């Protein structure tokens, strides 16, 4: 293959792969979900229902929903990887809804850390106390 054709082929391959390399670079995780940057939210910035739920978690209940305190499996892989049973989930009521809604607080390590999601596990913010 002539040198000019080889150079064009290399340039084409480089340009074709560039978007994938950029995506890997900007995602910041190189395939490791637990390495993602962690967004945070201060307790004061939680909705009032979130602050009330966090207080209930810390005092051990009683909880208004039967599913509060169940194991959160972290199937989405958005929280740091831990053994099954490390995370527990709790409902943060949403005013105006007649069901549990999308908001949750997930606790980890027997109350050692807390995470808030307003979009039913699509994203999390670590609660900063």
CATH superfamily membership of the largest domain: Microbial ribonucleases
Helix- and strand-based class?
alpha+beta
Provide the gyration radius in Å.
Answer: 21 Å
Task: Kindly report how far apart the N and C termini lie.
Answer: 64 Å
Largest sheet: 6 strands, mixed
Number of helical runs?
Answer: 2
Number of domain modules:
2
How many strands appear in the DSSP assignment? Answer: 6
As residue ranges, the low-confidence spans are 22-35
CATH topology heading of the largest domain: Nuclear Transport Factor 2, Chain: A
Strand content: 15-25%
Shape: elongated
Strand order of the largest sheet: 1-6-5-4-3-2
**Overall pLDDT metric:** 83
Kindly list the characteristics that best describe this protein:
alpha+beta, Nuclear Transport Factor 2, Chain: A, six-stranded mixed sheet, 2 helices, 6 strands, 29% helix
